[in-house]
UniProtKB/TrEMBL annotation:
Entry superkingdom: Bacteria
Protein name: Long-chain acyl-CoA synthetase
Annotated Gene Ontology cellular component terms: membrane
Lineage: Bacteria, Pseudomonadati, Pseudomonadota, Betaproteobacteria, Burkholderiales
Domain named AMP-dependent synthetase/ligase: residues: 11-427
């Protein structure tokens, strides 16, 4: 699509001025912004930024949740030829220093007092920051910092400028070219400093339209924008595709109201990382455990039918008449109400990405009639590389290459991609750019995988993470940690897992329990506990987790390739893994190497065969203070199973 984001905005405002563009929930009531309203707001914000001195090709940081006025400001910056750089709103102040200095940011738009305080805290280390503009004025009345201003004031200034210069805005928008830089997204920074991924209007819109064509998206779609705008996954669905298709984006009132807002909106097009789907399923399972005997038995019986025939029905395959009747009854009694309760009653297409999803989790959603599919992509590829066609969604693949994508597999098993959506460069980092982009335009994904006989891409793990067992009965067996972790995370009682085993004689895991699910489980058994650390070390909880692990081991024994990845020992961590403690990325991916180093004493104890180990860990609280958590952790063996030989 050879156009720009602001040009698409003006196109929608001209062709369908009174159609809804954005909705925002405020004080429990949904407020609608039409395309005409939005275009006028963007014009005023752009004029205000112009008056304040924002220059073409200059970076402007945006920090906050999904809010119409934040979206409008990104469009306003792009209208002036400036480059919005969204940062994670839950990042601590210190994490913002590198991106702000690397991108030489003078202008920052933030959502509220929390984000203002964050920037004021690090202002001495980022002396080039000249303007901090805030959207929500609550709590900021008595602030008197240089360059601190309300977005309302900027809009007022811009409004006066627009009145005197009526043709200025359209002339500015017309100056932008499709190959101009449109946005920059900082990577998670799992190793070293994050890298600024530079994308043009052309790269982002090419992939947005390719994805829209693939799933036949129209202007009638409804989307809920609730994930961080700094994550390109959220950005492509609720910004790039929003402007490409002209559908409605709904912004929830707050993070705590997302599940209620999801039910009210009833999106037709939905996107979430596996962790969200895991959380939703956990909440369902907790409610069913609390249900009466009759309701629980009905749920179990109906889910048995759903698991057996639901995915086949979803894929348009033939199913026996009796099974069809049973499924229809289940749909009336269980699946339909369940979809409605989850907020998925209108979902036509649901995607998950960001990391691999557990096959059991994937099958659960498809079995109850939700068209959940997987996609493959990254920040550097503008997300859309492979998508799963309807009727061809499988748990073990991530789909087929879509329009404009070429894929090849390198000699070491690494997936290589070529498409019109590839990054222009890593900002100010030519060495890193040269590492991932070949001279002839191929991008190194760092993922290991292959194309199967049906042309679907299978991802095994990160190239650097796929290892081998060394020594013992499974010497030389493949070890794919992410695969093992995902199988364990299907259980509602397990929230996070770190699998270890490369170059070792066996696989061991460190587990985070799901505090809500296990807490509910404990309460129903009259098992008292004084908090996460206490609950995690209960002998009964260890037995619960061991049972989950042994079920996964029995399943792995049936997989000839990964039977050697069965878990021999485990422990339950005394604290939840946290991005603020450096253990997860801001997109909630496990930083396995960092964790193995941080908890080296626990790793050594697991492999030394000890039954307990003392550990003290420093933690960072939400208000920036640090403290420590200590405990003596139990370490436990699990049962493994001989590999099941396939029939000759």
């Amino acid at each position: 699509m050879k156009t720009t984001f602001p040009q698409l905005l003006l196109q929608h405002a001209t062709q369908r001025p009174q159609s809804p563009a954005l909705r925002e929930k405020e004080y429990g009531i949904w407020q609608t912004h039409t395309w005409a309203d939005l275009a006028q707001l963007v014009e005023k914000v752009a004029a205000g930024l112009h008056q304040a001195g924002l220059q073409r090709h200059e970076h402007m940081v945006v920090i906050g949740a999904n809010r119409p006025r934040l979206y409008a400001t990104m469009l306003a910056a792009q209208s002036l030829g400036a480059i919005p750089v969204p940062l994670y709103q839950d990042a601590v102040a210190a994490e913002c220093i590198f991106p702000l200095n690397n991108a030489e940011v003078r202008f920052c738009l933030v959502e509220d007092q929390e984000q203002v305080d964050k920037l004021l805290e690090i202002r001495e280390q980022c002396p080039q920051i000249a303007h901090i503009i805030y959207d929500d004025p609550r709590g900021l009345r008595n602030y008197n910092e240089e360059g601190l201003d309300a977005l309302d004031s900027l809009i007022e200034t811009g409004s006066a400028f627009v009145a005197k210069n009526p043709g200025w805005f359209k002339a500015e928008v017309a100056k932008a070219q499709p190959d101009d830089v449109a946005a920059m997204f900082f990577t998670s920074g799992t190793t070293g400093n994050p890298k600024g991924v530079v994308h043009t209007h052309s790269t982002l819109l090419d992939r947005a339209t390719a994805g829209a064509e693939f799933d036949k998206l129209t202007s009638s779609e409804e989307v809920l924008a609730y994930l961080p705008p700094a994550w390109i996954g959220q950005n492509i669905f609720s910004y790039a595709q929003w402007l490409a298709c002209g559908y409605v984006v709904n912004c929830p009132e707050s993070a705590s109201t997302v599940t209620i807002d999801l039910k009210e909106v009833g999106p037709t097009y939905y996107f979430a990382p596996p962790r969200i789907f895991e959380g939703l399923l956990t909440s369902v399972m907790i409610r069913m455990e609390d249900a009466g005997t009759l309701k629980r038995k009905m749920f179990e019986a109906c889910m048995g039918v759903a698991k057996r025939v639901g995915p086949a029905l979803m894929d348009g395959e033939a199913v026996g008449t009796i099974d069809k009747i049973k499924y229809a009854l289940g749909n009336l009694l269980v699946y339909g109400p369940l979809r409605n309760n989850l907020g998925f009653s209108r979902v036509r297409v649901a995607y998950t990405a960001g990391e691999a999803i557990g096959p059991d989790l994937f099958t659960f959603y498809r079995s109850i009639g939700i068209n959940l599919k997987q996609l493959y992509g990254s920040t550097e590829t503008a997300v859309f590389v492979c998508l799963q066609p309807d009727n061809q969604a499988r748990a073990d693949t991530v789909g087929v290459p879509i329009r404009g994508v070429q894929i090849k597999v390198a000699d070491n098993g690494e997936i290589m991609v070529k498409s019109a959506g590839l990054l222009k460069e890593y900002y100010k980092n030519p060495a890193a750019t040269a590492e991932v982009l070949t001279a002839d335009g191929w991008y190194h994904t760092s993922d290991a995988g292959f194309l199967d006989a049906h042309g679907h891409l299978k991802i095994i793990d990160r190239v650097k993470d796929v290892g081998r067992i060394q020594g013992g009965a499974n010497d030389g067996a493949m070890f794919a940690p992410k695969y093992v972790e995902n199988k364990l995370k299907f259980f509602p009682h397990i929230k996070e897992v770190v699998a270890l085993g490369d170059k070792r004689e066996k696989v061991c895991v460190m587990v985070n329990i799901d505090f809500d699910a296990v807490g509910n489980w404990a309460e129903r058994r009259n098992l008292p506990y004084a908090g996460y650390t206490d609950l995690a070390q209960k002998p009964e909880v260890y037995e619960l987790i061991r049972d989950c692990i042994e079920k996964v081991n029995a399943d792995l024994a049936n997989d000839a390739l990964l039977a050697g990845s069965q878990v021999s020992r485990f422990l339950v961590l005394h604290k939840e893994l946290d991005a603020d403690d450096g253990e997860l990325t801001r997109t909630n991916k496990v930083r396995r190497g960092f964790i193995a180093e941080k908890y080296a004493a626990l790793v050594d104890a697991l492999y030394a065969g000890r039954t307990e180990q003392y550990i003290e860990t420093q933690v960072k609280f939400e208000d920036g203070r640090t403290g420590s958590v200590s405990a003596t952790l139990k370490l436990m063996d699990t049962k493994t199973f001989p590999p099941v030989k396939s029939a000759a």
